[in-house]
Amino acid sequence: xxxxxxxxxxxxxxxxxxDLELVPRVGEHILxxxxxxxxxxxxxxxxxxxxxxxSRVGWDKYSRISVEFDNQVxxxxx
Length: 78
What we know:
It is a single chain. By secondary structure, the protein is α+β, with helices and mostly antiparallel strands. It contains two helices and five strands. It is globular, with a radius of gyration of 12 Å. The chain starts with a helix and ends with a strand. The model has no long low-confidence stretch (mean pLDDT 91).
């Protein structure tokens, strides 16, 4: 029900382990959410990272961005 994420996410993939991976419309990275718990907090953390991090370093710097764990954003460089 969030207009930003509705426009931003192109595909949602559920792995065989039940983890969520999102494919965004902008950028060449995969968003890894892990298990589908505390999704609002994970998406809020990711939105903050988009606004304060990716806007400075660029949308294609990372190949994978994970918010699986509490209070962390873990990125894998391209």
